[in-house]
Design a protein that fits this description.
Elements lengths: L1 E3 L2 H13 L4 E6 L5 H13 L2 E6 L19 H11 L4 E3 L3 H4 L21 H4 L3 H16 L3 E5 L3 H13 L5 E5 L19 H6 L1 H15 L5 H12 L5 E10 L14 E10 L2 E10 L8
Parallel strand pairs: 1-4, 2-3, 2-5, 3-4, 5-6
Antiparallel strand pairs: 7-8, 8-9
The structure holds adenosine monophosphate (AMP).
The site of adenosine monophosphate (AMP) has 17 residues, from helix 2 and strand 5.
Length: 294
């Protein structure tokens, strides 16, 4: 496993492997790796014969006042975990200066996907998705993958990136891996370490809320209002939860829908604060296509 920290070296490595005829996969992460990330890396290995994992805490996707400085950074432990998998070829871990020479404030070129960030997280995290689409574009151009793997836990991110890849003809296959969870349903997240034992116990309400929405939809409930109410009821079971949003949106437009259309994919998503810690969860679903209109 090779550690690469500059963009030109990464590009040269990718070009060499491409010239050998290898199929390259990239798994972008911000480090503090857990089993959720490792599931992505294993999926990458199934689709390619050269796997790069990037580790970069991207300053441009954190809004002012968010946890950029405090975000957990555990490079040595991350490298150990990846080495232990036995099949990761490259870890690309650039410094902020390697990705943003002159600093992020001097950066002038941005990639934005319009209209898909008006709801869900985008509504509350100004500039977040512009930072994500820009850094992922830069990682694609540095690592030159044929396939890139993302988690569906960050559903809006995945759907925005899918649109970006299509709109800009990146020619990269995007794979979305289902959320990896603790036994009680809590989605694994690098931010779970911030939770107190009591908050951790209460955090199970997120997965309960979105599974309940999915269950209702899959048993034929078409009114999203009913799904949102059910999610809010489930979240209210946690006394310390402050709900930021609970929404049901179409997965193409990321706009709320009033009534679910049979066969069309939708997403139920929630964001909840416990103290300063912000957690998200979601469920993708389709209502059965044999449900009658009306
Ligand atoms: P992050 O390091 O939080 O930016 O996440 C890097 C990638 O891992 C993103 O594509 C996330 O969606 C994915 N990811 C994070 N947590 C999970 C999880 N519990 N299950 C599946 N994928 C995850």
């Amino acid at each position: 496993m090779k550690l690469i920290q500059t963009v030109p070296e990464m590009q040269a490595e990718a070009d060499r492997r491409r010239a050998e005829g290898r199929r390259l996969a990239l798994v972008p992460t911000m480090g503090a790796l857990h089993e959720g990330h490792l599931a992505l890396v294993r999926e990458a290995h199934r689709h390619a014969d050269h796997v790069t994992v990037s580790i970069f805490v991207n300053p441009t996707q954190f809004a002012p006042g968010e946890d950029y400085e405090q975000y957990p950074r555990t490079l040595a432990a991350d490298l150990e975990q990846l080495e232990r998998l036995g099949f990761v070829d490259v870890v690309f871990a650039p410094s902020p200066a390697a990705m943003y020479p002159g600093g992020p404030a001097r950066h002038r070129t941005w990639v934005t996907v319009e209209g898909l960030d008006e709801h869900l997280c985008g509504r509350f995290r100004p500039g977040h998705f512009r930072g994500v689409t820009t850094v992922v574009s830069k990682l694609f151009l540095a690592c030159r993958p044929h396939v890139a793997v993302f988690g569906r836990k960050d559903a809006q991110q995945f759907l925005i990136l899918r649109r970006m890849v299509r709109d800009l003809n990146f020619g990269i296959e995007l794979i979305g891996v289902p959320t990896v969870r603790e036994p009680d349903g809590l989605a694994l997240s690098s931010r779970n370490v911030y939770l107190s034992p009591s908050e951790r116990a209460q955090a199970v309400v997120l997965s309960r809320a979105v599974s309940e929405a999915r269950r209702l939809a899959e048993t034929g409930e078409q009114r999203t209002e009913a799904l949102v109410e059910a999610m809010r009821r489930a979240l209210a079971q946690a006394p310390d939860a402050r709900v930021q949003y609970a929404e049901v949106v179409d997965t193409e437009t990321l706009q709320p829908v009033e009534k679910l259309e049979p066969g069309r994919e939708a997403l139920a998503a929630v964001a909840v604060f416990f103290g300063q810690t912000r957690l998200i969860d979601n469920a993708f679903f389709r209502i059965p296509s044999d449900v009658r209109e009306g």
